[in-house]
Design the sequence.
């Protein structure tokens, strides 16, 4: 999404800062049920040391910190989101030395060592994206985790349980002309287990969580879904205007009489353990 194919009538450039704000203000909250279900299952609290890979704008970190956990967030894919996470979790700027041990850390890459030198007890990947680079990210992060630490991988549930799948298929279709395009694809039954196995992790249970996507109107729905990055390949293959048009049309079946948009979805998570 860093640039578009040239056209005689160029499409407007994507404002990445605006996209990050849309993620933070519209889309990110849709995954709160997933965050809370994982934290409840793993008893996240004052004794927890969390490393959140691909932390985005930091809402999952904020929820864990509110439970008393010490949190570190990493996001190399979306620097604009990470800037919002810093504003959200560190509103007063760098922490004072006396608070540095437990203050949130927000980084562009996995740290060389865990905060305070104490291994992490929980590593999360709530936003696997298209899976690109996830193996390398886990390889860098897992040496920072304690033996037996939980690693949580999450992603879309079965397509038939996710209304948004129909909308995302439209994006995948638009991206087809672009060789090597990466984007959304339907979740496979063992996707998360395969990632865990490649990383050398031991599966230790899984769960499904209802995460409906609800929006005040069509405009909010379009902005929220575009902010996920799942339409970037389609924008590169066509242009932003075409994607906006196709996305708006694909959302019409989910528009309710009061103008709101509602799409029931199920997300799946896997709990694995560091050997």
Sequence:
């Amino acid at each position: 999404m860093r640039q578009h194919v040239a056209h005689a009538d160029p499409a407007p450039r994507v404002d990445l800062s605006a996209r990050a704000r849309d993620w933070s203000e519209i889309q990110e909250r849709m995954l709160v049920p997933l965050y809370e279900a994982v934290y409840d299952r793993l008893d996240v609290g004052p004794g927890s040391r969390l490393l959140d890979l691909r932390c985005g704008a930091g809402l999952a970190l904020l929820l864990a910190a509110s439970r008393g956990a010490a949190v570190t967030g990493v996001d190399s894919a979306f620097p604009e989101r990470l800037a919002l996470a810093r504003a959200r979790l560190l509103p007063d700027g760098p922490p004072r030395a006396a608070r540095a041990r437990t203050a949130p850390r927000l980084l562009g890459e996995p740290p060389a060592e865990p905060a305070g030198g104490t291994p992490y007890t929980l590593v999360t990947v709530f936003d696997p994206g298209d899976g690109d680079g996830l193996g390398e990210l886990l390889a860098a992060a897992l040496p920072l985790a304690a033996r037996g630490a939980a690693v949580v991988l999450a992603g879309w549930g079965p397509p038939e349980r996710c209304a948004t799948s129909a909308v995302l298929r439209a994006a995948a279709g638009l991206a087809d002309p672009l060789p090597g395009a990466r984007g959304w694809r339907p979740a496979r039954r063992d996707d998360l287990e395969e990632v865990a196995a490649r990383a050398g992790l031991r599966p230790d249970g899984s769960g499904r969580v209802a995460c409906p996507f609800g929006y005040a109107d069509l405009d909010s729905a379009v902005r929220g879904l575009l902010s996920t990055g799942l339409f970037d390949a389609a924008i590169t293959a066509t242009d932003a205007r075409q994607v906006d048009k196709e996305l708006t049309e694909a959302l019409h079946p989910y528009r309710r009489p009061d103008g709101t948009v509602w799409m029931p979805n199920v997300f799946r998570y896997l709990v694995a353990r560091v050997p």
In short: Confidence is low (pLDDT under 50) at residues 1-9, 95-101, 178-182. The domain at 16-162+186-213+265-273 is CATH 3.40.50.150 (Rossmann fold).
